[in-house]
Amino acid sequence: MTKERLYLFDTTLRDGAQTSGIDFSVNEKIVIAELLDRLGVDYAEGGYPGANPTDTEFFSKKRTQKAKFTAFGMTKRAGRSVSNDPGLQQILAAEVDAYCFVAKSWDYHVKVALGCTNEENLEGISETVKAAVATGREAMIDCEHFFDGFKANPEYALACAKTAYDAGARWVVLCDTNGGTLPDEIKGIVGKVQAVVPGDHLGIHTHDDTGHAIANSLAAVDAGVRQIQGTLNGIGERCGNANLITLIPTLLLKSSYADRFALAVTREHLTEITSIAHAFDEILNRSPDRHAPYVGETAFATKAGIHASAILKDPQTYEHVAPETVGNRRRVLVSDQAGKSNLLGELARLGVEVEKTDPRLDRLLADVKQREAEGYAYEAADASFELLARRALGEVPRFFEVNSFRVMVERRFNAVGDLVSMSEAVVKLDIDGEQRMSVAEGNGPVNALDRALRKDLGKYQTAIDGLELIDYKVRILNGGTGAVTRVLIESHDTTTHRRWFTIGVSSNIVDASFQALVDSINYALLKAGAV
Amino acid sequence: MTKERLYLFDTTLRDGAQTSGIDFSVNEKIVIAELLDRLGVDYAEGGYPGANPTDTEFFSKKRTQKAKFTAFGMTKRAGRSVSNDPGLQQILAAEVDAYCFVAKSWDYHVKVALGCTNEENLEGISETVKAAVATGREAMIDCEHFFDGFKANPEYALACAKTAYDAGARWVVLCDTNGGTLPDEIKGIVGKVQAVVPGDHLGIHTHDDTGHAIANSLAAVDAGVRQIQGTLNGIGERCGNANLITLIPTLLLKSSYADRFALAVTREHLTEITSIAHAFDEILNRSPDRHAPYVGETAFATKAGIHASAILKDPQTYEHVAPETVGNRRRVLVSDQAGKSNLLGELARLGVEVEKTDPRLDRLLADVKQREAEGYAYEAADASFELLARRALGEVPRFFEVNSFRVMVERRFNAVGDLVSMSEAVVKLDIDGEQRMSVAEGNGPVNALDRALRKDLGKYQTAIDGLELIDYKVRILNGGTGAVTRVLIESHDTTTHRRWFTIGVSSNIVDASFQALVDSINYALLKAGAV
């Protein structure tokens, strides 16, 4: 049976760019466009030429090799001709393979937002599509608020869709702009639209405001739609767009879709999807969602010790898909139940080479169990774990030794009666027999200590130049201010773009922070190949 | 038309506890149980008595007032009688309203994981349910891997479900344990199960491995199921369980469900859901998901300037539900009207009496907004908020004044070559014009400061005799060790059993801790009626 073709339309650089807290530079857009080609999407909507300088510059040349480079814009203003609409002309002039114009399809919006008649809106859609088609490139229309518009005035919504199709649009995309439509409603309405536009010319664009972005996209496909719009890692306004990283594996691995449809993305491409998702998070400079379907760090991690051996025997009975298919891995967590096979698995994952029979492994395993009982959560601190392992195998040089430190926080009134706080740290180090002593101030005790530690590392100074502390989390285990403190530090190297996590545990928060800081520096030196 | 009753079953404290990186203490479980009662769920699954010390202690008494307190466990071991199964006996003996036993329903798992025959497994289900029912309490069965089990051997899966129902189970819960089943499959299979178990005795338990946890839950409801299992903020193994915080608003606000079903949660409860979701994140000590449906900070925020005025004119045409219904806010303009009614609601909830027209309220509102922008999350710190409010109304005496403090942490080698850490704090106080100065040591800087603060409060000493610090959470806002620190302290009075939360924010962790500690002491004195 021949499979039908499903098309993927990525709007990371347009709708995704409207995410609160996200602003792409031209350079970032270029890098993301390359990522989209690596992923294998059919269309990459690059932005809105003319709307802002970044987008205008981005569209000065074609930025994709494989995906159809697409420009977004609005349909012709009412009361003007196509040639007399400079905004539209600017879009038509862009170096693209396709255009995607957003149009009103809810009569109420036509009145309130456009201030023109229903007929003028239809004319705008028709004229815009015709002008786009006349360039020889593909044209599509995003029918904004389509589902709410259909519920309010079905005839008009259908008229908008039909007008776009009749004018020659390759795709008429039905947008759940508010994100409030539910799957059965999507199915029912898409069914009705097929009276005026065939399914192979229909697209779906959803948002996650009720947690149904994925389900709505697939419901629309079930109802006949053949283009799905979404973003990388589901970024987008409010609660985000449909997450292509979640959709693609489902379409390729679940038989109810894989048997019926073919994508441009192949099973070989799919093994890169975890890497692509993480690379995108790096560009956004944010921690990956550890629980993301398919690609999340814990997507295939099981804590319940019961399953561990059973899973390794027959993964299919405990995992819905094999993690290797999406380039992810099974993570049986280094937990209280940690056995040797778990440990070997983790070491292999971190690239630590060791013989299964190496006697030092038993010692390391006992050490890990002991420390985990004390509060070290190594599943959250790969770098500390790797240091611990490599030290057990004699692979970590003694870069420096901290002989002592002192941290002071003082709050008092100054001479003019203002309440001031000050933090100061003094650190005494030994580097190759040479004593060094540094003092630093900071915003707080840990900041002061961090600065003092990194102020003068002698011959190692350049190796930690790019070192940046990104995040710092503290948890108190067993309650109260006298209990055990666990500190997790996330570090980043601005030159290598490497990101790592280290941990410290102590009843003293400054001590715990100190451990995590020292581990971070040692890890940076180890990875820099410092000698 | 009478609405059918839908039941909500929360498994945050059981399935949620299996989340990678999450470990609840007994104390945290107690606080979360109170949160669940505030939310209004029907069942709260507290954990697995006998499986670990925390859960065993948690089940030493009933921990909910409204929700049915439920114990989890496994069905009877094959080859033993109910009375001879100590694990099962321990569960049956717990102080609960209901039991939820997980049972195998996939014949392959019966063979590989249990190592018994299919019939023995059915007998285990039957005997367990009967024993539970005999206690007079509710019994339910979680049919593990039900959907995969049904696909592999439908007759056996149905036999498991039927056996549980025939033995008297109140609920037979169909679990998509792998998280890989899709909505149409859920619907189809649930339909078949109704041949042996009526829908009003069926439950659904989903996971988010394909992004369908919500859609699968609702698909099951559409197919006849009447209990939904989920967790707060969707925590849970791998990619998480169905998020009750996302489900509840949809069930109450979308007509396709609201017209057909009634929950124990009312529209009034619903206005607290944003606050509850954020409070839970605070307990987990993690950043809230800003993009979460309904309750996320950006759930109703629009960046596209186009909409701003149109939204305010007629929000219904741009928002799928009104943010106030879920206690969230539209973030387009800072609306004074919306802010003030929120504030009055909060004050009423805390028992602070004030006239709506009191002019001091505007000043308090501005103060709260300013502080929240700085990082004070008052929804997680009622006591600090109450102090702030009552101070604005002139109701809080000046019990004591801290003139200055100094905290020192030192780590060095002692005379015999051991590495030691010591922390010391000195505090200077003013009580009714009388100067007092105290010094104390501690396990860390905050512990030392806490002890020094409480060492000598003069005439107020007895009022804080029962004061105990239970928990202490730190979060860094905006990353790195130089950023803003937020400290949340949970305090407890052993004499009154009152429990309260206070907050401090500063770039200096010791300063932030100090604020929260001082608030805690002032709150204790206020509530003790100290003069």
TrEMBL record, chains A, B:
> PANTHER family attached here?
(R)-CITRAMALATE SYNTHASE, ALPHA-IPM SYNTHASE/HOMOCITRATE SYNTHASE
Q: Would you identify the family this protein belongs to, as annotated?
A: Belongs to the alpha-IPM synthase/homocitrate synthase family.
Q: Please give the name of this protein.
A: Citramalate synthase
Q: Which UniProt keywords apply?
A: Amino-acid biosynthesis, Branched-chain amino acid biosynthesis, Isoleucine biosynthesis, Transferase
Describe the location of the Pyruvate carboxyltransferase domain by residue ranges: 6-271
Please tell me the species this chain comes from: Roseibium algae
Q: What is its EC number?
A: 2.3.3.21
Q: Which Gene3D superfamilies match?
A: 1.10.238.260, 3.30.160.270, Aldolase class I
Q: State whether keyword Amino-acid biosynthesis applies.
A: yes
Keyword Acetylation annotated:
no
The record's Pfam families line, in alphabetical order, gives:
HCS_D2, HMGL-like, LeuA_dimer
Q: What does it catalyze? A: pyruvate + acetyl-CoA + H2O = (3R)-citramalate + CoA + H(+)
Q: Which InterPro entries match?
A: 2-isopropylmalate_synth_dimer, AIPM/Hcit_synth_CS, Aldolase_TIM, Citramal_synthase, LeuA/HCS_post-cat, LeuA_allosteric_dom_sf, PYR_CT
Pathway named in the protein's UniProt entry: Amino-acid biosynthesis; L-isoleucine biosynthesis; 2-oxobutanoate from pyruvate: step 1/3
